[in-house]
Write a structure and sequence with these properties.
Elements (H helix, E strand, L loop, with lengths): L9 H4 L11 H14 L3 H10 L4 H7 L3 H5 L3 E2 L6 E2 L20 H10 L6 H12 L2 E6 L2 E6 L2 H8 L12 H9 L11 H15 L2 H29 L1 E3 L2 E6 L2 H17 L12 H20 L4 H7 L2 H32 L17 H8 L4 H13 L3 H16 L1 H18 L3 H7 L1 H13 L5 E4 L5 E3 L2 E3 L5 E4 H5 L49 H18 E4 L8 E3 L3 E3 L5 E5 L1
Parallel strand pairs: 4-10
Antiparallel strand pairs: 1-2, 3-4, 5-6, 6-14, 7-10, 8-9, 11-14, 12-13
Helix pairs in contact: 3-7, 11-12, 11-23, 12-18, 13-15, 15-16, 15-17, 18-21, 18-23, 19-20, 21-23
Length: about 575
């Protein structure tokens, strides 16, 4: 599969913006809201609305028939939710979009006071349930329009232009500017972004690149399972000819993700599966986690003001980034010296690797010489920082869901075992013959998206849910409520990897052509999708493949995991899983 994402055309999207609710928007929005409410348990609804601090007036409004609500101008003056009056079937102005309160600073204070940032994904889900499939939100200096239906998302992406823009993570950009670091493609826009991105795509996104780095990822996944099997056989209980051990796999998964990233990016192993992994690598993992945790609250405050004030939160954030850059620069310098030695004839193999073997993305970029060393450093650092938690955490969720769904686990394992036998253990052929592995990853990311939004600034005026959206407005597709919406997925609470098979059994029939290409967006979309997508997809599939070939997974409690948001979605407490040898 090529790195360039296939765009959907008008036929696939089923017509004008607004998708499921275009045209007679008032009636359709009322039907959608009634259906959404009936799909959720009343207890859950009451607890969710309580968290939103809805005023007594707004609470009474929720019990009024929706047809009555839609004909009134309802405003919770204390900062609660607001639904504006509909003036008929014509396109409504931007100001009429339902919103959570116009004063962004009051909203931000409420978020801080109620510690709501960690539950931002739940806040979005509850707000959609209350206001419908589109709403405005102001937080501090940020103003967004939030959407969740695939047809609306498709309309947004069709207006992204040649140089798609998403929200700039200003704390990251300020760090680069104050430290005099170059910016990678994640923080760039315009023609400069496009030029660098096309060069990177060749090394990390295209099919030829996947064929080069897949063996390196497979080596790490095999070694991870060998390490884990030794541990289970040494520390676990023996019975029925098997060994079993219950453990929290998250620390080992973080080491796996870092080891795999280093192997692909630098062409070298760093020995994280040894009995005593290096403190340097452990500090790097800590720095990435700290950087992610301090980013969300900094998004809504002026970064340079916090810098001048030497605010503790900013200091922690910048210190974490400094350590990430220091770690990456040391690896890059080593790779650069190896390449120079190889070019001078001091060594016989490229960048110190075995003859004919892919020596890492860094080596490829240096050999081509199309990016400056500073730009290579910036982009490799971004790939490193974005390649640890964003892989390790989804693997925690995937192992948990496979463990609490034994029928699904056995079905995926049977397909993997058959493909393994037919492919004689060739990793690429095994993955091709076991599409349920990819379905498992997609299903995991549907329920637990790493990033909970995908943003774009449309380059032209568009219409969403019969509301006018001016060009240049920040619009967010909200992935957590999207993945759990009954209007988009049949039985969304079920972990069902087969829903992604060509038969499309996991989607409502009347929505099969309504933005079908925009149901799975965990890696973004189009030219601006995640640049490390192919690395992450294959890394997760290979790890799951080797785990299922070696272990049966089980858990003691099948209760849902509680989650929190720290720029990425992750468990509040990592799940413990029992690994039983096969």
């Amino acid at each position: 599969m090529e790195g360039r994402e296939r765009r959907a055309d008008g036929k696939q999207e089923g017509g004008r913006a607004g998708g499921l609710f275009a045209g007679k928007s008032l009636v359709r929005r009322i039907e959608w809201l009634n259906q959404t409410r009936s799909n959720r348990a009343s207890d859950s609804m009451l607890s969710s609305t309580a968290r939103l601090s809805i005023s007594p007036l707004a609470k009474r409004v929720l019990s009024v028939p929706l047809a009555t609500q839609a004909s009134e101008n309802i405003d919770a003056a204390d900062g609660g939710l607001t639904r504006k009056k509909d003036n008929g079937d014509g396109i409504q102005p931007f100001e009429k979009i339902p919103h959570t309160g116009n004063n962004g600073w009051i909203n931000l204070l409420r978020f801080w006071k109620e510690d709501r940032f960690k539950d931002l994904h739940k806040h979005m889900e509850t707000t959609f349930s209350t206001l419908g499939p589109i709403y405005r939100e102001n937080l501090g200096s940020q103003s967004t329009v939030n959407i969740l239906l695939p047809a609306d998302i498709g309309e947004l992406f069709r207006s992204e232009g040649l140089h798609p823009r998403r929200m700039t993570l200003q704390p990251w950009a300020t760090h680069r500017e104050t430290r005099k670091h170059s910016k990678g493609v994640f923080l760039k826009n315009g023609t400069e972004w496009r030029a660098d991105r096309l060069l990177l795509n060749r090394e990390v996104m295209m099919s030829s690149a996947v064929r080069r780095f897949l063996p390196l990822l497979d080596d790490v996944a095999r070694d991870f399972c060998l390490m884990l099997r030794r541990r289970v056989e040494t520390e676990g209980n023996r019975g029925d000819g098997c060994h079993r051990l219950t453990l929290d796999p998250s620390p080992d998964l973080f080491r796996f993700a870092l080891e795999a990233s280093c192997h692909v990016l630098y062409g070298e192993r760093i020995g994280l599966f040894s009995s005593s992994p290096s403190q340097e690598s452990e500090r790097f993992i800590w720095a990435v986690e700290r950087m992610l945790a301090t980013t969300p609250p900094l998004l809504y405050l002026p970064s340079r003001l916090l810098l001048r004030l030497r605010a503790p939160l900013w200091t922690q954030h910048a210190t974490a980034w400094d350590h990430i850059f220091s770690h990456a620069e040391a690896r890059i310098q080593t790779g650069y010296q190896r390449l120079r030695a190889q070019q001078s004839g001091a060594v016989d193999t490229a960048v110190g690797g075995p003859a004919g073997r892919f020596a890492g993305v860094l080596g490829q970029l240096m050999e081509r010489g199309q990016l400056s060393l500073e730009l290579i450093k910036a982009n490799i650092t971004e790939l490193m920082a974005g390649g640890v938690d964003t892989t390790a955490v989804p693997l925690q969720f995937a192992l948990f869901e496979l463990a609490r769904n034994p029928e699904v686990q056995e079905r995926v394992r049977a397909q993997v075992q058959l493909s393994w036998k037919q492919a004689s253990g060739d990793a690429q052929r095994v993955l091709q013959g076991a599409p349920l592995l990819k379905g498992t990853v997609k299903e995991t990311l549907r329920l637990y998206p790493v990033g909970i939004t995908v943003q774009r600034y449309p380059v032209r005026d568009i219409v969403l849910q019969n509301y006018h959206i001016p060009a240049g407005t920040l619009v967010q597709a909200c992935l957590y409520p999207l993945g759990r919406s009954r209007d988009v997925f049949l039985e969304p609470e079920r972990f069902q990897p087969t829903r992604w098979e060509p038969s499309k059994t996991g989607f409502p029939r009347d929505t099969e052509d309504q933005g079908a290409s925009f149901r799975s967006l965990a890696f973004g979309f189009g030219a601006r999708q995640c640049v490390g997508r192919r690395i992450a997809e294959n890394e997760m599939q290979l790890l799951l493949m080797h785990v299922l070939l070696n272990f049966r997974l089980s858990i003691t409690s099948s209760e849902d995991l509680k989650t929190k948001y720290t720029l990425i979605l992750q468990p509040e407490s990592p799940p413990s899983i029992t690994f039983t040898t096969l």
